[in-house]
Automatic annotation (TrEMBL):
Cofactors required: Cu cation
Organism field: Bucorvus abyssinicus (Northern ground-hornbill)
Keyword field contains Metal-binding: yes
GO CC list: plasma membrane
GO MF, any single term: copper ion binding
Family classification: Belongs to the copper/topaquinone oxidase family.
GO annotation, biological process: amine metabolic process
Classification via Pfam families: Cu_amine_oxid, Cu_amine_oxidN2, Cu_amine_oxidN3
Enzyme class: oxidoreductase
Modified positions (2',4',5'-topaquinone) in chain numbering: 461
Gene: Aoc3_0
Lineage: Eukaryota, Metazoa, Chordata, Craniata, Vertebrata
Domain Copper amine oxidase catalytic: 305-707
Keyword Metal-binding: yes
Record-given protein name: Amine oxidase
Range of residues in the leader sequence: none
Amino acid sequence: MNPKLPYVLLVGAAVIIFILSCMLLSRGRRSPSCESQPRVVVKTGSASQSLVFADLTPEEMAQVVRYLQGNLGAQLVDASRAKPSDSCIASVELQVPAKAEVLRFLDGGGARPPREALAVLYFGNQPDPNVTEYVVGPLPTPAYHRDVTVQKYGGKVPYHRRPMLGSEYEQVEAFLEMVAFAAAPTFLKEVFEYDGTNMVFQATAPHGFQSGDRKSWCVLFQNVSGFFVHPVGLEVLVDHSSLDISRWAVSRVFYNGQYYRDMAQLESAYVQGRISVEKVRRVPRDGDFSSMKPRAPSSALFPLQYEPQGPRYSVRNNRVVFQAWSFAFGMSVSTGLRLFDIRHKRERVAYEISVQEALSVYGSNCPGGMSTRYMDGSFGIGRYTSPLVRGVDCPYSATYLDVHYLAHSQLSRTSKSALCIFEQNLGSPLRRHYSNLQSFYYGGLVNSALVVRSIATVGNYDYVWDFIFYQNGAIEGKVQATGYASSSFLHGDGLRYGNRLWEHTLGTIHTHSVNYKVDLDVGGVKNSLVAHDMAFEMTRAPWSPEQQIERPRLTKKVLDTEDQAAFRLQSKMPRYIYFAANSKNKWGHQRGYRIQITSFAGDHVPEASSMERAISWARYQLAVTRRKEEEPTSTSIYNQNDPWTPTVAFADFINNETITNEDLVAWITAGFLHIPHSEDIPNTVTVGNSVGFLLRPYNYYDLDPSIYSHDGVFFTSEQDFTACEINPVACLPQTAACLPNFPPFTYGGFQNM
């Protein structure tokens, strides 16, 4: 035996072990983390012009509260514990400066407009109770205030129009428990096993039938998770119009299809065996069928989205920059998400795009359901903007921002991570072509867009509000509805008003209508409204005169007046309708932005209704009016509680004024009819419940601006399409071979409830 053989074998074994170890280590080695860059850049100083639109900071809100407490000469109670007979600060938010002032500052080198707040105060503790609005400034150190109520509304706002504070709901609840229910102890105990904690109410609105009424139907439900679909059949009409809570009274009671004068009469009828009782099975606290707890265990992880080279957008204070886009954002306490100074390729295309109102009109054979017309702005779409769950409400890697507001309290509150911004690959091409005739090539562009999102939970419904920015210069405004269906107790002819969702649950038919304000400035402030459509014309074929051809041709019309530009909800509207600039593109066409609406709205409330004028914006799928500072919103927070004498009636905006070469605003209404069905249990899905609008360039550019996107892909049959320099998608195994650096999961939605 060769004496060197053992050494050779030993060395060989060592080499093999080394190679195997390297292979195992390389397989097990963690891929490098993806690149990251700052998402949110805090930039202060005069250079950040978008701050003119920025929401108030908590410190500024506190300064406004202190100023009002010390300078109005009125005793102000904290709204969170105010009685109707008290005076209090109901809300404080940014007073957006006049457009002319802002444009002088942004475009003309003018002075920055003073930073001011708008404060809404309830004065219940005085001989003439009323609601007053003050502009307070300048911030951050207030030195003046001015009453703008008469200027805005033509007079003082009567006190009965005030939106209900959280404290008033608590006082109604206490009245039910301590006064109303005390009159029917036997009925409540034996029918509902009532123990003081197992029932909860939802108040309907508006509160009555005429101006001055403040009577709310309080619909009772089992106090469980998802209580909205657990009605028990009892509804109580509470008259809380008096500023003296001790004078509140029960006006009527409804139980299982029958009406009673009050709870005492119901108790008497029950004890005497003169009413038909429908026992409702008591469900566990998790709600049983209404529980949103998954019925299946976790399995393979759902697909995730990440940015292999870091986010391609930036957020500086309240300003977002994404590719050719830039805009400022904010959050109104009453109307929610709003955008300002929206620019594409550095040119302003819109001054303001904002939510105005969300309306729901219900039907039922129960009093609470049949009288419900919710105007969510009165409750506060911005106030009820909810904290977002990372990875579900928005992509996990999105940028999350806090929202600060002051409403129903003298202290500001913070809704953590209540607004998200992210770029989303929509999984389809924005444009593409595969050529297999004459020349052979492929050209395409991934449809990647920037999304700004907030979600407002107003009572039973959750509204997902999106503004989406595409690479071709289009903007989309979209709302998706989810949450719980509102319900009534199923009895009698209930199936005329909806579908049965569970044993005693009637999912009640209702409409959703959402109104937007779109202040387009296309190629400048002055625009005209133009309609293009089609019509067939009959002609003889020039080469064969005996033959007839039906050919479509373009129709054109300038809409000169507001009346011509007001399109009723179910009426036929020109399919191409656009704001036209005074300038032309390279091909001689007026530069424009087209309005395209996606909606399948239910019918509008009949105009003969005594309350229709309060929601008259919903008459129109589109109405274009002259922009006026005195017409800043299509409705008012005061319309909910007095729709019979509306503080703002949108119908009055349309008075046949000329709209040619003027500063114009488009008021867009989108909506859908919802007939709840069994698949709305446990709650409603967003699929199919999405409506909104698109703003699309129409001859605005000389060609599609997305051709300049860095994301474009093009290769021919003669090129090496696997080469990175030819086809960037071929490089993904290298450029995207990293692991996303996901931050730890946190959630602040249950703090400071």
